[in-house]
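Sequence, please.
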């Protein structure tokens, strides 16, 4: 019961009900007092008339019956008196109309009781109307708000500045409205993301597919030498590999953006993950003639999915190697302090123009100074999504002709 009395409406209606009950009791007691006064007056009139007749015949007997009137008669006298009255047809079975004084008092009493109940019924009806009209007005507001939400209007807000269940209901309604609006916004974003993704896939696959169609038409419709055929087939093979890698990368990025990937976080060495990433690029590093050094002072443990974080680091180190000239250098640092864990990948390569820096993590963006024709511009976008999924932050600093530095930071909580 206590939990219902947090509602101010219940407190108020209970207080009003108690007040009106007290007024009703006071009215009933007042009516009873009036009735008793009238009954006493009728009692005096009846016995006054009887006493007057007795007194006119015998004053002495009148004096003797006075104690019976004021103090009451004993049981035997009362029974004998009732027997005598019955001989004259007077008993409690007679109608009230044959007792004029009693009948008049009873009629007044009945009228007063009826008036009291009519008054109380009118008051309770008015209270009931006011209280429930107040409740239903608030319910209609919620109903109107729900209809507006169904019609697509999410700007409505139900405000309740009092405690109680209606306030909780309005807060829940507002929360539901925000959740529905946010879900619809997310659906719109996902729809737009899907449109953009399909557009990106179509755009990126168009060039290699066109090249393969041309190679295939040449091989089918023209006389070419065995050496030329081999060249066309090798080019087609390279385009297929490129398309395969592109499709896989785009799908990975799409799954990351849609939060459809479940990362298997394990507390393990960040140093080893970084080392594995560099080792995976060993052939590419040798062919590029670039020196890659890992700098570490202590073993750093960090909860992460090694496979995915490795892929992110591979893309970053690969980007530095590709944009560093033969004989250049790439340094990878793994460090920790009381605030964060950090991985820094720095090269002394060609650098990135200041105008391109804000865009290098966007999908399919290629810097205007990039000399790599094979670059698609998806690796860094994929790396950024993976790092952010691990709760990290990636920043880049670069200067043309000096080099580029990628800084990956994992804050400690």
């Amino acid at each position: 019961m206590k939990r219902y009395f947090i509602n101010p409406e219940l407190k108020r209606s209970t207080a009003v009900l108690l007040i009106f009950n007290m007024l009703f009791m006071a009215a009933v007691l007042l009516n009873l007092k009036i009735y008793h006064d009238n009954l006493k007056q009728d009692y005096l009139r009846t016995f006054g008339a009887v006493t007057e007749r007795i007194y006119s015949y015998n004053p002495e007997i009148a004096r003797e019956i006075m104690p019976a009137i004021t103090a009451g008669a004993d049981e035997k006298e009362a029974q004998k008196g009732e027997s005598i009255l019955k001989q004259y047809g007077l008993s409690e079975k007679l109608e009230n109309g044959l007792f004029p004084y009693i009948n008049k008092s009873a009629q007044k009493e009945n009228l007063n009781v009826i008036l009291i109940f009519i008054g109380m019924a009118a008051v309770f009806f008015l209270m009931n109307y006011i209280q429930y009209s107040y409740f239903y007005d608030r319910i209609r507001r919620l109903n109107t708000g729900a209809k507006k939400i169904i019609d697509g209007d999410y700007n409505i807000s139900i405000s309740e500045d009092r405690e109680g269940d209606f306030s909780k209901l309005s807060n829940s309604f507002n929360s539901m409205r925000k959740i529905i609006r946010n879900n619809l916004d997310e659906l719109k974003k996902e729809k737009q993301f899907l449109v953009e993704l399909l557009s990106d896939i179509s755009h990126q696959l168009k060039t290699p597919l066109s090249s393969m169609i041309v190679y295939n038409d040449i091989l089918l419709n023209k006389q070419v030498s065995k050496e030329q055929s081999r060249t066309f087939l090798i080019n087609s093979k390279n385009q297929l590999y490129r398309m395969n890698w592109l499709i896989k990368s785009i799908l990975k990025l799409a799954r990351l953006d849609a939060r459809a990937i479940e990362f298997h976080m394990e507390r393990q060495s960040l140093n080893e993950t970084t080392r594995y990433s560099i080792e995976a690029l060993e052939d590419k590093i040798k062919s590029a003639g670039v020196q890659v050094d890992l700098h570490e002072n202590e073993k750093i443990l960090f909860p992460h999915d090694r496979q995915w974080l490795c892929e992110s680091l591979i893309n970053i180190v690969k980007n530095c190697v590709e944009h560093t000239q033969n004989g250049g250098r790439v340094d990878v640092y793994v460090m920790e302090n009381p605030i964060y864990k950090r991985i820094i990948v720095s090269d002394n390569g060609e650098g990135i123009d200041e105008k391109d820096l804000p865009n290098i993590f966007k999908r399919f963006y290629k810097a205007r100074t990039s000399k790599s024709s094979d670059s698609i511009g998806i690796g860094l976008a994929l790396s950024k999504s993976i790092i952010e999924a691990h709760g990290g932050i990636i920043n880049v600093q670069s200067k043309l002709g000096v080099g580029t530095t990628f800084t990956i930071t994992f804050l400690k909580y």
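Residues 159 and 170 are 7 Å apart (CA to CA).
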